[in-house]
Design a protein that fits this description.
- Chain B: GO terms for molecular function: protein histidine kinase activity.
- Chain B: Pfam families: HATPase_c, HATPase_c_3.
- Chain B: It catalyses: ATP + protein L-histidine = ADP + protein N-phospho-L-histidine.
- The complex is a heterotrimer of chains A (201), B (719) and C (209).
- Chain B is α+β, with helices and mostly antiparallel strands.
- Chain B has three domains: 244 residues, Histidine kinase-like ATPase, C-terminal domain (Heat Shock Protein 90), CATH 3.30.565; 163 residues, Ribosomal Protein S5, domain 2 (2-Layer Sandwich), CATH 3.30.230; 153 residues, Heat Shock Protein 90, CATH 3.30.565.
- In chain B, strands 1-6-5-4-7-3-2-8-9 form a nine-stranded mixed β-sheet. Chain B has a five-stranded mixed β-sheet with strand order 10-14-17-15-16, with no helix packed on it. Chain B has a five-stranded mixed β-sheet with strand order 19-21-22-24-23.
- Chain C is an alpha/beta fold.
- Chain C has six helices and ten strands.
- Chain C starts with a strand and ends in a 13-residue tail after the last strand.
- Chains in contact: A-B, A-C.
- Chains A and B meet through helix 1 of A and helix 12 and helix 13 of B.
């Protein structure tokens, strides 16, 4: 599974931080992007939504420009399916909880953490891509060819959805978006139960 | 209030308009004892524009059929409609809506809304109320028998919770109980007011009880009556000596006070007296009218012996400063609080940090009366929750003013202590000199005295020597004590700087650890690896740099543990530069602050290094706080030599210093940054240290106008 | 001979294509030489008035009615306006009602049965359709075809469920791409409901005389 890492951090000193090195070792240098400008970073995400990107986000951006929380919110507007790891040197407690709750931050990592502490979290993010059903559906849609704006899914209550519509719903995790993974889960359960029955017969 | 009139007039009834739960809630919960009850009733009279309230205690010890308490006021009284629609109704909003009493008095209402009437039942169970307005010709009388309500309450409480159908019919409501009313003769043109005649008294009133009531009531009225436009007096009548017909006067406190300050204001000149401690004396000065308006302020300080004497005589506690308006206590101070600890310190006297150090006074050492008037101090508004004043500019300004006056007293006390110390010391020295003198005299006498006296003279001489020894030892001890005290002070100051510094240092360390940790981790887990040689090199030099910086910081910290007085040659430029570039750099980076140093790097100052570092350490700390909300902060230090003086300017482009505070910021414990951990010691210390160097420091126009602040420091220069 | 009405809203904006597809399936089944001649009611004439006219003519004779359109709990609609609801359920006395509309099993079915309809086959949920997958229409039509083959309605219901399962399994096994569609088919399957008595085509047959 191809994974990229985007590090949004305005202090250039961190460009050569050991964490960045460790990430490069793991994912290849080409797949690790260090972007100090938040606007550029958001653009990058926008144009690469079809890739699996893990984001490291420094919370303490300068006052006046977008601060870390706002950047997280902007990312979430694009998709709920991007794991954003908050990276910070300040006292965590307050930050931790509000961002977790409001904008679904993936995890929280202190700037003084060891690689032994950080890399498992990165692994979790990779697992997220692999195992999370919504991510799977997202990938499935992404790799499809053809016109993704043509309506293909119709419901009896008059709604119609194109693949891109479904993609958006899943990324935004709307009720409709969430229903897809639910339907898949129910299918899996159904298959298991019927298989069991067949085996019993 | 003759009982005959009852028989003549037709019987009419009024009913109370509320239910039992409301009654219990309001009455019982809010007024807990009979003194409070009296308090509330008197407040009601005040709110009714009374000039005089008379409380008469009749035959109350022991209780008998003639026992009565009569509370009579000459206020505006009530119309029948007022009686029916207000007195008989719960939670009438008249006091909620009108925070002032009727014209022309316009007194700020002190009584709690609508509970006065329940106060009565704490005194006795039968009430005969009579009331009359000036423009009515007859008095109205109302009879309330609280025992009926008590019975009903019992009845209601004993009913099962689940009401059966029939039960409803049995139960009476409060609203069913009838209170008889009637009118007097149509012959009284001039009288007005309200009289509460309470019978069936609940508990006896001893002499002590009535004395206590007097004391409590005394708190209602300010001792400084001069200002009252419409006076308010309370009289007590009883059978006891000294309280037969007693006007309740606030006690005269002045006789016991150790230090008294009485500040008045002048309406014509629009000036306010303030107290300033200057040149060893506590003086009164005139200053302009302050934002809170003209006030009179009476402040009395009591030292330990004074407190003891006061308590002996008056048997009340010294309990801080209270605010009165037009002669009556204001609501935040009006609640009778039995436990002094519970009373809120809304002036913030005890909140000042590090109380206990350096002659700090707290509210148990002070009695104060702030006299406001509606006319002059309209900006000071009591909060609707009655617990505080509205937190506006005028209130804050008043608080600052009061604290400042207390501070002047503190300065005076400190100075007194100093004087005593000096005197003691010089007295000791004089004593030793005197002893030498006597010794010499004795020697002379010995030369001309007969032999028989020699032994005696010898004794005297050796006694004198011993005495001299004692005195000298005392001098030594005393000097040592002084030293210790100075050391403690010095250490204390150091500690405070340490506190602010420690925070910064931990921050620095944390960052260092952060980097070093991962670098070391990476190295140890991947070494050896040819491909990563470049990275390993980078790691090793990074670790080295980090530790170097850390070492500088540790060195800096260690200095604080030593209180040395050594002087040395110091390169000012390097000293400040070190602070900017090494010690404070991480903090600056974090807060996006740039530093600038414009100073000849050959300037050498001969002084105590730590003291100098302290000065700049504090100035920088101060600036960082001021720059908290600024995007691009600048801290700039520049200096020139002029006429054998080093003139330094230390500036930042932060919040700035209000022109009102230009002088006060150097005062100890003056802080506007308490939330950021500001102890109010920094700039005081800076000024102290600079003045110890024979220099000066002041606030000048900011280099970064209109923002920011600039300190101008002048130091004598010897090289 | 049987009285057979097949209603399709083939012009509908969202389900139109699906409905059209099913319509064509039926047209193929009832080719010109087939003994049964169904009456087709298309979008243009799918309205309460027309339904009344058509059904009134039958008087009390039995008939089979199939409807492929949108629906709600208590009605079938075309362009949001009802064409079968409380006001005309009584027309369906003596019928077998077969529908591929959403939710009508919840309330409309009971109303129909209360008013003399023998049997209802329809859905209690939202019906799903994914363009390009014949499985949806095949399963949707299967029941009715089985009834025409002579299977009784209860049996047809069971066979429909089997058919759904077949399609689901096939989609999943053959083609990993089909899992989404399989999940939607499963939803449809679980929404399928049979209400009323089990009757068979025999009960609707009559001779030409």
């Amino acid at each position: 599974m191809k994974v990229q890492v985007l590090i949004i951090e305005d202090n250039l000193k961190y460009k050569n931080d050991t964490l960045v090195w460790a990430l490069e070792d793991k994912f290849d240098a080409d797949n690790v992007v260090f972007e100090p400008d938040p606007k550029e970073a958001l653009d990058y995400i926008k144009t690469n939504l079809d890739k699996n990107i893990i984001v490291f986000l420094d919370i303490q951006f300068p006052k006046g420009e977008l601060d870390g929380h706002e950047i997280l919110a902007e990312i979430r507007k694009m998709s709920e399916l991007i794991p954003v790891i908050l990276w910070s040197g300040v006292n965590e407690n307050q930050e931790k909880f509000s961002d977790f709750i409001n904008h679904n931050a993936f995890r929280f990592v202190s700037k003084t953490a060891t690689l032994a502490e950080i890399m498992p979290i990165v692994d979790d993010a990779v697992s997220f891509f692999e195992n999370n059903l919504d991510n799977t559906i997202e990938d499935w849609i992404i790799q499809k060819d053809g016109d993704k704006d043509k309506p293909v899914y119709f419901t009896g209550d008059g709604h119609s959805y194109s693949l891109n519509d479904i993609l958006n719903h899943i990324r935004q995790q709307t009720d409709v978006g969430k229903s897809f993974s639910k339907k898949l889960n129910q299918l899996t359960i159904d298959l298991l139960l019927r298989n069991k029955k067949r085996l019993n017969d | 209030m003759s009982k005959q009139s009852k028989k003549k007039v037709q019987e009419n009834f009024l009913n109370f308009n509320f239910d039992i739960s409301a009654y219990r809630l309001l009455g019982r919960e809010l007024i807990t004892d009979r003194i409070t009850a009296l308090f509330e009733i008197v407040k009601n009279s005040y709110d009714a524009n009374a000039n005089l309230v008379e409380i008469e205690f009749i035959s109350l010890n022991p209780l008998n059929d003639t026992s009565k308490i009569i509370i009579k006021d000459d206020g505006i009284g009530m119309y029948f409609e007022d009686l029916r629609d207000r007195w008989m109704v719960i939670g009438t909003s008249s006091k909620r809506r009108n925070r002032t009493s009727p014209e022309p008095y316009l007194r700020k209402v002190t009584g709690k809304k609508g509970i006065g009437r329940f106060a009565v039942d704490l005194l006795g169970s039968k009430l005969t109320l009579s009331t009359k307005r000036k423009d009515e010709n007859r008095w109205i009388y109302l009879e309330t028998d609280w025992t009926k309500y008590n019975e009903l309450e019992e009845q209601q409480l004993s009913l099962p919770l689940g009401m059966e159908e029939g039960a409803n019919k049995k139960k009476d409501f409060f609203t069913d109980i009838k209170n008889r009313y009637w009118f007097g003769k149509n012959d009284d043109k001039a009288g007005h007011g309200t009289i509460l005649e309470i019978e069936d008294i609940n508990d006896p009133w001893t002499e002590d009880d009535i004395k206590r009531a007097c004391k409590e009531l005394a708190r209602l009225v300010s001792p400084n009556k001069g200002i009252q436009k419409y006076p308010f007096n309370i009289r007590i009548k009883s059978e006891y000596e000294g309280m037969k017909d007693l006007e309740i006067k606030p006690l005269s406190y002045i006789e016991f006070a150790t230090i008294s300050i009485e500040l008045k204001s002048s309406k014509e000149k629009e000036t306010q007296e303030i107290a300033v401690f200057e040149n060893g004396k506590l003086l009164k000065k005139d200053t302009v009218k302050q934002s809170f308006g003209l006030i009179d302020f009476y402040l009395y300080y009591f030292d330990q012996p004074a407190k003891r004497k006061f308590k002996e005589k008056f048997n009340i506690d010294i309990d801080g400063i209270k605010i009165y308006r037009d002669g009556i206590i204001t609501t935040p101070f009006a609640e009778t609080e039995a436990d002094q600890n519970k009373q809120k310190d809304i002036l913030g006297i005890d909140k000042r940090r590090y109380s206990g150090f350096f002659d700090k006074i707290n509210s148990r050492d002070l009695l104060g009366f702030v006299e406001l008037t509606d006319e002059n101090n309209a900006g000071l508004i009591e909060a609707t929750n009655r617990q505080d004043f509205l937190d506006n500019k005028e209130w804050r300004s008043l608080k600052d003013f009061i604290i400042d006056q207390i501070h002047q007293i503190e300065k005076c006390l400190k100075n007194n202590k100093e004087q005593i110390r000096k005197n003691t010391k010089s007295n000791l020295n004089r004593a030793t000199a005197d002893l030498s003198g006597i010794k010499t005299l004795v020697k002379e006498v010995k030369e001309t005295a007969p032999k028989e006296l020699h032994e005696k003279l010898q004794l005297i001489d050796s006694s004198l020597s011993k005495l001299q020894g004692t005195v000298n030892k005392s001098i030594v001890d005393y000097t040592k004590l002084e030293e210790e005290s100075k050391q403690k002070e010095s250490l204390y100051f150091s500690l405070v700087s340490l506190q602010t510094y420690a925070a910064m240092f931990s921050h620095m360390t944390k960052h260092t650890i952060g980097h070093v940790l991962r670098d070391a981790e990476y190295f140890s887990s991947r070494f050896p690896n040819e491909k990563l040689e470049g990275r390993f090199k980078v790691i090793s030099s990074r670790i080295y740099d980090e530790f170097l910086t850390l070492r500088k910081g540790v060195d800096f910290m260690l200095k604080y543990a030593q209180t040395d007085n050594e002087f040395e040659d110091i390169n000012i430029h390097d000293l400040i530069n070190n602070l900017f570039i090494s010690i404070y750099k991480p903090t600056f980076d974090l807060n996006h602050i740039k530093s600038e140093l414009i100073l000849d790097d050959k300037l050498i100052l001969h002084y105590n290094k730590k003291a100098l570092e302290d000065i700049f350490d504090n100035l920088i700390s101060n600036s960082i706080k001021a720059l908290k909300t600024v995007k691009e902060g600048i801290i700039k230090c520049s200096g020139v030599i002029e006429n054998k003086k080093l003139i330094l300017k230390f500036s930042d482009n932060g919040l700035g210093i209000h022109s009102d505070d230009r002088f006060r910021i150097f005062e100890i414990f003056f802080t506007k940054t308490a939330e950021d951990g500001g102890a109010g010691i920094g700039l005081y210390m800076v000024k102290n240290r600079i003045e110890a160097m024979q220099g000066t420091i002041e606030v000048t126009d900011s280099e970064f106008k209109p923002n920011g602040a600039t300190f101008k420091i002048v130091l004598p220069f010897k090289k | 001979m049987i009285n057979l009405f097949l209603a399709f809203d083939e012009e509908d904006g969202s389900m139109g294509t699906f409905n059209q597809g099913c319509l064509e399936d039926f047209e193929t089944y009832f080719h010109k030489d087939h003994p049964i001649k169904p009456s087709y009611i298309r979008s243009r004439t799918l309205n309460p008035v027309n339904i009344e006219i058509n059904l009134d003519r039958l008087k009390t004779k039995s008939f089979i009615f199939s409807a492929y359109s949108h629906g709600l709990d208590d009605r079938l609609v075309i362009k949001d306006s009802p064409y079968i609801d409380d006001t005309n359920v009584n027309l369906f006395k003596n019928s077998l009602f077969y529908t591929v509309s959403c939710s009508s099993a919840n309330i409309l079915a009971d109303r129909l049965i209360e008013n003399g309809c023998h049997c209802y086959l329809g859905y209690k949920c939202l019906f799903n359709y994914w363009d390009g997958y014949r499985e949806f229409s095949e399963c949707a039509n299967f029941g009715l075809f089985k009834i025409f083959d002579g299977v009784d309605s209860r049996g047809a219901f069971d066979r429909m469920l089997e058919k759904y399962n077949e399609c689901i399994d096939r989609l999943v096994e053959e083609n990993i791409d089909g899992f989404m569609q399989a999940a939607l088919l499963r939803e449809n399957r679980d929404g399928l409901v049979h209400k009323g008595n089990s009757i068979s085509i025999k009960d609707f047959q009559y001779s030409e005389d």
